[in-house]
Amino acid sequence: MATRLSQKIYAALAIVGLTAALGACSSQTEEKPAADTQTTATDAFPVTIESALGNVTINEKPERIATWGWSAQDAVLALGQVPVAMPTYTYGGVDGVLPWVKEKIDALGGDQPTLLKGADNGTANPEEFVAARPDVILAPYSGLTQEEYDALSKIAPVVAYPDQPWATSWQDQTLIVGKALGLNAEAQKLVDDTNTYVKELGAQHPELAGKTFAYGANNQPEILNVYIDTDPRAQLLVDLGMTLAPSVEELLPENPDKSFYYGLAFENLNKLTSDVLVAYFGDQAAADAFTNDPLVAAMPQVKAGAFAPIIGESFVMASSAPTTLSIPWMLDQYVPQLAQAAKNVK
After folding, report:
1. Edge-to-edge strand order for the sheet containing 136-138?
2. Whole-number Cα distances in Å, 228 to 183, 214, 332
3. What is the pLDDT of residue 21?
4. How far apart are CA 7 and CA 19, in angstroms?
5. What's the pLDDT tens digit per position in 216-263?
6. Is the pTM of this model over 0.90?
7. Cα angle vertex 27, ends 21, 30, to 5°?
8. Beta-carbon neighbour count of residue 38 at 10 Å?
9. Distances in Å between the alpha carbon of 214 and those of 171, 223, 285, 319?
10. Residue 256: what pLDDT?
């Protein structure tokens, strides 16, 4: 992607005159045990969820759900509910909606959610959330700042990421959303079923087993952004049976300014050793421009045909923020190409 919304540092917005809706919120309370598989959604409440930005208690099952960041709407939909508001996806979406998301909304017979236009510039606009009148705001895979979290918390309970921004696995995202909606058992089944699907798909292509990979994106001239082990892109390939190349960690800057990737100058690409190279591109022209660069063309992975590009905006989004909905949507088509690259390893 030319610019990733997740790479922006969100600017804090002040709210003036918003009506506080804190009845469902409380802070710094003790974590309550998740409801067991026999507990109904209604009986699961109140539920307390911890996050890096603050703890929140949800007193009743949410009916009007808003999502923020990437992929939370997928977990909500997979659990059978349609959000009242979710981010607009100019990149990869059709009329602002990702294809697998539209398929699921149509299957559920739900109304089109309000598309939050603040997503276009990476800024959570409180006024948009006020208009949506949510009971809860789910943002477990996002870049919310503390200021934004505090502002949105005046509108509805906000469930943020548990540790670092943009570093929550799809499994944890699903379980967090399930807990917020009182659907713990259903969320666990989604995770288990999707994990099984990924592992079985990997087993169908034994050439992937143990192969090392590096995963990048050429978003800036002469720079390859390299994703590290905390990023869901890398984690998905590990789940298929591959191994993140040691060189990815060895080249990590001493004081990286990003939590999930770092920039590597093309002049240092020869140090990024791996069996397979993976990178994403919005279109074929961008992929061709990348491989036509002499420093890229000289990489052993590219020379050997062990380069497996992910091409097309929707496929970029599906792989960049994998979910129980997007994983089967893209992996069935992409894994054979990845397996062929693994076969070409010299």
Report:
1. 114-116, 85-87, 65-67, 136-138, 158-159
2. 31, 9, 24
3. 34
4. 31
5. 999 999 999 999 998 889 999 999 999 999 999 999 998 766 678 999
6. no
7. 135
8. 7
9. 22, 14, 21, 14
10. 67
**How many Å is the Cα radius of gyration of the chain?**
20
Burial of 87 (0-12, 13-18, 19+ CB in 10 A): buried
Which residues of the chain register pLDDT less than 50?
1-39
Cα 127 to chain centroid distance, Å, stands at 24
Type of residue numbered 126: P
* Matching residue, tokens 């949507």: 329
> 94 has which bridge partners?
97
CA–CA separation, 296 and 218 (whole Å)? 11
Contacts of 115 (CB under 8 A, 6+ apart): 85, 86, 87, 88, 96, 97
What the block records as the tokens of 84 is: 């009242």
Please name each of the domains of the chain with its CATH number.
5-196 (3.40.50.1980), 204-343 (3.40.50.1980)
